[in-house]
Write a structure and sequence with these properties.
The structure holds 2 protein chains of 2 kinds. By secondary structure, chain A is α+β, with helices and mostly antiparallel strands. Chain A has one domain: 2-Layer Sandwich (Folate-binding fold), CATH 3.30.2270. Chain A contains 2 helices and 6 strands. Chain A has helices at 33-41, 91-98; strands at 2-5, 9-12, 17-21, 49-55, 63-69, 75-79. In chain A, β4 (49-55) and β5 (63-69) form a beta hairpin. By secondary structure, chain B is an alpha+beta fold. Chain B folds into 2 domains: 18-47 and 121-206, Gyrase A, domain 2 (2-Layer Sandwich), CATH 3.30.1360.120; 49-118, Aminomethyltransferase beta-barrel domains (Alpha-Beta Plaits, 2-Layer Sandwich), CATH 3.30.70.1400. Helix content of chain B is 16%, strand content 34%. Chain B has helices at 60-65, 98-107, 133-138, 187-198; strands at residues 13-14, 23-26, 29-32, 40-44, 49-54, 72-74, 80-85, 88-93, 115-118, 123-130, 155-160, 163-169, 177-183, 203-206. Chain B is globular and about 50 Å long. The chains are: A alpha+beta, B alpha+beta.
Chain lengths: 108, 213
Amino acid sequence: MLLPCPWCGPRNASEFRYVGEQTVRPDPATADPAEWRSYLYMESNPAGWVAENWLHRAGCRRYFAAERHTVTNQVRATRPPDAEAAPAQHADAAAAGRAGEHVREGRP
Amino acid sequence: MGERAPREAALVARSPIAPAPPATVEQGWEISARRSVARLRLTDATPLAKVLVRAAADGPVARGLEIRFGRAARDADGVLVVGSGPGEWLLLAPPGTAPEIARRVTARADGEFASTFDVTHGRALMRLSGAPASDALAKVCAIDLSDGVTPDGAAVRTSVAKLVTDLVRDDRGGEPSYLLHCERSSGQYLFDALLDAGDEFGVDVDGFVFPGV
């Protein structure tokens, strides 16, 4: 499976570490234990599109967000985390990464 | 109690990679004096000065280095500047010049917060040269090493033999040549893995020749 890193372009999935689904952190002032438990341990794990975070462990060592289909492993969009500006000087690699359609492996 | 042995005159720096015999000491480094004319040659280039630079990807330091992430080229002083990551550079220069190289980068910072680290003794560096270099490397690396995707002057950080490695294509004499840069503790492993991968291409160990860049 190839995963398109927004900085490095498509790379072997073994270079990445799966961080988890994107979720909203509860407000520490008001959250009860059930909310924390849900935030920390529960995943929705749908059979379909899911927004998740990945770390390019063996490459640029940056975190990024990806939209992946859990059945086909198709990745349709990757982007740097919101806090970080898009890497303007790496437009080529980013364009290649965002083109998506780096689908391989996984059941049809 | 016998006489105390006379103290050695000079300290010797050693690469993590055992030198292929005959070993010799040159400019304070223990290196291999072996010379090879094989089709594929592997050289321990660890004595090269290695300086790691961290700075903003679009700041004064980045503009001074003039190399973007994913590319590598020599500057006016002959230092090989490698764009090893977003906002991260690796500078390779002749042995012993690391403090001076670091000073030169810091001088260009112009108030920007930038860090320079002398990682000469903390990392291993090797060079794989020869016509079949790309084929040998392709056995342990998932990157497309064809001329169209990874031309001369390309730099990627990727997995080589399951090891996080900075891979720089730096052709010499019209032949493909790659620099591989990894943590010191993994140096001997990567060296052996490359010898193993290059075995079918007749790889041979070639000694380091100063200045080496």
